[in-house]
């Protein structure tokens, strides 16, 4: 036995048996050709495969385990599906749990979304959150919650829903997905952000309200050299369908990272929408060329507001260096020009494909970024002039309620509306092989997504989620979700201790930053480093520590 193992290890058994079987099938084929043909071909193929595995030098596992290694590759290729369908728990977030996805599917289908037998959440686990209810509840009949953007400084302010579709470009999503999203937006009277890929024919066809996102590539409003074109911007921005303009500084999925749409993917339709040549690499630089300082950014905002005919203009960013955001805010004070709104994109966002390091370790999560933006605007006395939106894993009524309580005026969602379209979270968005036709340019794959049916599901998901938000606000004794504040949210910080978010997160008083630097370490360290004239820090953090006393 030991001798046999020495000359023919067990891991070669499949190869050995296929070889012996091949020899036996030769004899069978010689005696009975009709019966022996199939075994001969199958066993001959396996024998050849094992031989090729044994002699090749690129993969050690194939060389050590001829034939058997391919079973490993097979199971590895379907590991995500095995895990998702058979092993994943209902509460495990990767990045969305089965329970979260099922909630979206139920609301999108407009079927019962109730749950029996109690919560699946661990209510005694760290970071568990809830809203305290009131004995004196309210009944909110109208759940079409809205916020006015640009009122007082725009000729054409816009009444925006509290829940809207985040920026997702045509090119990243399929034509049928864009059609369905925009149809749902039109049915529900909420907004659909175009993403930086600009306005395509599939955005225009249903006629739903659009937020036109302007990225660093200036797609849809660019000269041939990639610089900003005021003339082309006017053509798109003055369309009645476009309600707001959004300057994208960065995004949660890959902040600080540009992008390239390879030439092979630049189809005539994508080229038409973006204003680029067909079959040429489409480049999104990592930074803008229309401005290079915070003051220039304010001037660009004012220019777009004027060129658009007085429509609200805002910025979207994932918070990075605090001094850079502070510099933008100081530029608002110095120029007396403010964006009509700011969208805080959290690092937990991610409809776009991105390098793993950017996905996992770059950018500020939405909650921290939102609180910083809200606090700074309040401290400068600008909060009434600048509305705040937020995006980052917001798919339920409670997600919206918590985000509004932290300081947002409205919320956006990308993946939530993708689930409403039928997304299975297969995580193949960047491969073009989306199984449900949402994130692909393959005609054969996207034909499975019916824009009429899925458009209705987008509408129902939005409608039923806002209905749930209204029920939450009413249960808390409020008459509108915009009355939610940090003291309404309770967070468990240990097994035996809970605290109001208002006690955990320090909030500034109106105008406080105009009077003195708050006793908060972020402001103590970075406020003095910021300047309206540049995004660069005035002095280094090490120099700041020498001049600023430590604050607990």
UniProtKB/TrEMBL annotation:
InterPro entries registered for this protein in UniProt: Aldolase_TIM, GltB, Glu_synthdom, YerD
GO terms, biological process: glutamate biosynthetic process
Keywords in alphabetical order: Membrane, Transmembrane, Transmembrane helix
GO function terms (MF aspect): glutamate synthase activity
Gene3D superfamilies noted in UniProt: Aldolase class I
Chain ranges passing through the membrane: 12-32
Glutamate synthase domain location: 147-477
Pfam family, one: Glu_synthase
Family membership: Belongs to the glutamate synthase family.
The protein, known as: Glutamate synthase domain-containing protein 2
Gene source species: Paraperlucidibaca baekdonensis
């Amino acid at each position: 036995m030991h001798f046999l193992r020495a000359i023919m290890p067990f891991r070669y058994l499949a190869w050995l048996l296929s070889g012996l079987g091949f020899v036996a099938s030769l004899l069978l084929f010689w005696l009975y050709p009709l019966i022996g043909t199939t075994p001969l071909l199958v066993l001959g193929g396996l024998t050849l495969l094992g031989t090729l595995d044994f002699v090749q030098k690129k993969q050690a596992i194939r060389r050590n385990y001829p034939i058997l290694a391919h079973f490993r590759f097979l199971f590895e290729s379907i590991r995500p599906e095995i895990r998702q369908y058979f092993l994943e728990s209902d509460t495990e977030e990767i990045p969305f749990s089965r329970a979260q996805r099922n909630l979206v599917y139920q609301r999108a289908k407009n079927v019962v979304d109730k749950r029996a037998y109690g919560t699946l959440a661990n209510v005694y686990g760290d970071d568990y959150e809830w809203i305290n209810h009131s004995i004196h509840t309210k009944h909110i009949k109208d759940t079409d919650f809205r916020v006015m953007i640009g009122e007082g400084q725009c000729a054409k302010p816009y009444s925006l829903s509290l829940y809207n579709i985040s920026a997702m470009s045509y090119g990243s999503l399929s034509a049928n997905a864009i059609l369905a999203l925009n149809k749902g937006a039109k049915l529900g009277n909420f907004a659909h952000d175009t993403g930086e890929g600009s306005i395509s024919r599939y955005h225009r066809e249903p006629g739903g309200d659009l937020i036109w996102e302007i990225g660093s590539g200036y797609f849809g409003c660019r000269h041939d050299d990639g610089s900003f074109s005021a003339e082309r911007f006017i053509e798109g921005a003055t369309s009645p369908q476009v309600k707001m303009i959004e300057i994208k500084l960065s995004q949660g999925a890959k902040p600080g990272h540009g992008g390239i749409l390879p030439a092979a993917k630049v189809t005539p339709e994508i080229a038409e929408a973006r204003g680029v040549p067909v079959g040429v690499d489409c480049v999104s630089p990592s930074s803008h060329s229309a401005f290079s300082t915070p003051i220039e950014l304010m001037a660009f905002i004012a220019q777009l507001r004027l060129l658009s005919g007085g429509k609200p203009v805002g910025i979207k960013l994932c918070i990075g260096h605090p001094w850079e955001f502070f510099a933008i805010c100081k530029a608002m004070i110095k120029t007396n020009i403010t964006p009509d709104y700011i969208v805080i994109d959290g690092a937990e966002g991610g409809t776009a494909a991105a390098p793993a390091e950017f996905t996992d370790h770059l950018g500020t999560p939405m909650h921290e970024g939102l609180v910083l933006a809200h606090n700074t605007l309040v401290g400068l006395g600008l909060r009434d002039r600048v509305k705040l939106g937020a995006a980052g894993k917001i798919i339920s009524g409670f997600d919206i309620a918590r985000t509004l309580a932290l300081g947002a005026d409205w919320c956006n969602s990308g993946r939530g509306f993708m689930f409403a379209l039928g997304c299975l979270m297969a995580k193949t968005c960047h491969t073009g092989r989306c199984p449900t036709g949402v994130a692909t340019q393959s005609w054969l794959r996207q034909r499975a997504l019916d824009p009429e049916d899925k458009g209705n599901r987008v509408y129902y998901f939005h409608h039923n989620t806002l209905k749930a938000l209204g029920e939450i606000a009413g249960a808390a004794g409020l008459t509108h979700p915009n009355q939610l504040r940090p003291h309404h949210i309770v967070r468990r910080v240990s097994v035996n201790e809970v605290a109001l978010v208002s006690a955990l997160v320090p909030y500034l008083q109106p105008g406080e930053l105009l009077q003195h630097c708050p006793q908060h370490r972020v402001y103590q360290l970075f406020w003095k480093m910021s300047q309206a004239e540049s995004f660069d820090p005035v002095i280094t953090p090490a120099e700041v520590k020498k001049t600023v006393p430590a604050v607990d």
